[in-house]
Amino acid sequence: MQYYNSIVDTIGDTPLVKLNKVTKGIKGTILAKVEYFNPGNSVKDRIGIKMIEDAEKAGILRPGGTIIEGTSGNTGMGLALTAIAKGYKCIFTVSDKQSQEKINILRAVGAEVIVCPTNVAPEDPRSYYSVARRLNQEIPNSFYPNQYDNLSNAAAHYETTGPEIWAQTEGKVTHYACGVGTGGTICGAGKYLKEQNPNVVNVGIDTYGSVFKKYKETGVFDENEIYPYLTEGIGEDILPKNVDFSLIDHFIKVTDKDAAVMTRRLAREEGMFVGWSCGSAVYGALEYAREHMKEEDVMVIILPDHGTRYLNKIYNDTWMKDHGFLEARDFATARDIVHSRNISDRLLTVDTVMKVNDAVRLLTKEGISQIPVTDGEQIVGSLTDSKILGQLIEKPEIRDSPVSELMDPPFKFVGLDNTLDVLSSLIDKENKALLVRDELNRVHIITQADLLSAMAG
Ligand SMILES: Cc1ncc(COP(=O)(O)O)c(C=O)c1O
Questions:
Q1: 401 has a pLDDT exceeding 90
Q2: Which residue range or ranges hold the CBS domain (predicted)?
Q3: Short-list 431, 377, 384, 427, CA closest to 403
Q4: Ligand 1 atom with the shortest distance to the CA of 185
């Protein structure tokens, strides 16, 4: 029989997968190490088990103990899986910029989660670093792994991630790229790779709003570099002990927007449904590769986690638009529906004086359910088949009346730039259709069927 004794035995040995589309025009082979194959769906499973086992060996963590950590979610998941396997309790402090999904996931695996404010200094007693530290002092037999300064973090990657990359590339790896948060992934695996081949180039990906790049390049810890940003998991306002700057050859900063857009491309073009910092890593790594890689070079990029944790953020079009990360032109609009029509198509209308019977015949012949009503050039009302049916059942004699007697108010006009989500929110039982004027001032009708076919693409 082939089985593992515990879920934590499945950690590591994640696959290397070639990037084929987003790498267009770049020389060399670009391989992604897809860490969402770990049981907790992130690279942090590797350090969870290592920090706990090292603490057990050092006698810091004893049976029945509590693990307390400040974590953006992924490390919490990694710690929680090992805690479950070994019977420890977990309390995690997270900052309020973290996605609700990450917090829910931690609670799902039995952890207690305390949400702390993001926009306070790390030494502020309300910060998630400080709260974790205080709980560690207050709760007996508790262990504070502190992924930032606990060198078991980098050691986990030195012992697993690095050797895996070396073996999987058969020693051909020339460049290693990775987002830098605690620094464990870049420095642990990067150290191992440089020991095998000192020419391996380690590229660290940083965010705008983080201190790393400037510190590496100038030795200055510049407070002015620190400001709030949205990307989760990378960049810091502190210098964690796991960051060994001598092991990182170059830093590249990536904006929240470039990272988010690249993450969505990875899902759509490569079939890799990954997390936000994966877009940062790939965007920054490719910027470096475009300038420096040769045909025979092999770059490995770490993709730390899975896309489910960001469904309500970067994978949500409305959220992307609200943050200015997608231009309005990236969305289908009323204009797209109008332009997809035949230029000779004219708006069908009925005049107020037309008999109801004739209007019904027209609707049936044209296979439509609603039509604007005009009085000369003016649109003065609307007719819908359901309304006519109801009226005909009540008063069959109405069939010989003019449509003006049972018409509803005109359909609402919308703008050409209104997006499909806005249009669909305006169409309901009461408002069966919308009207829009094109660039040549011609009026077009938009129905639910038009929206459906536009959404189906
Ligand atoms: C999603 C995500 N990406 C990247 C990283 C950075 O990895 P490291 O902390 O090893 O530098 C983290 C760490 O928190 C993370 O959660």
A1: yes
A2: 343-401
A3: 384
A4: 10
Pocket of ligand 1 (CB under 6 A): 72, 74-75, 179-186, 232-234, 275, 277, 304-305
Q: Distance, CA 2 to ligand 1 centroid (Å)? A: 32
* Average pLDDT over all residues of the chain: 93
Measure 307 CA to ligand 1 centroid, in angstroms.
14
**Mean pLDDT throughout 145-174?**
97
pLDDT of residue 329: 55
| Closest CA to ligand 1's atom 4 | 233
Catalytic residue among 21, 24, 27, 44: 44
Q: What is the pLDDT of residue 328?
A: 54
Cα 147 to ligand 1 centroid, rounded to whole Å = 10
Residues 100-112 pLDDT 10s: 878 898 999 999 9
Element (H, E) at 267: helix 256-270
Over range 193-211, report the average pLDDT: 97
Confidence of residue 336 (pLDDT cuts 50, 70, 90): confident
Residue 284 to residue 270: CA distance in whole angstroms:
17
Check if the beta carbon of residue 212 is closer than 8 Å to that of residue 253.
no
* Predicted local confidence at residue 330, as pLDDT: 63
Structural tokens at position 181:
């948060």
Nearest CA to ligand 1 atom 2: 233
Q: Give the mutation target among 33, 44, 97 for probing the ligand 1 site: most ligand atoms within 8 A of CB.
A: 44
Atom of ligand 1 nearest to the CA of 243: 11
The two three-digit tokens of residue 392, written as one number: 């005909």
Closest by alpha carbon to 442, among 343, 310, 311, 369?
343
Q: Which of 325, 310, 337, 299 is CA-nearest to residue 414?
A: 337
- Asked whether the predicted pLDDT for residue 342 surpasses 80, the reply is no
Residue 299 pLDDT > 70, yes or no? yes
Residue 413 has pLDDT above 80, yes or no: yes
Task: Check if 172 is active-site.
Answer: no
Which ligand 1 atom is nearest residue 305's CA?
1
pLDDT above 90: percentage of residues in the chain? 76
Under 8 Å CB-to-CB from 455, ≥6 apart: which residues? 332, 420
Q: What are the strands, taking DSSP E only, across 76-195?
A: 89-95, 112-116, 142-143, 175-179
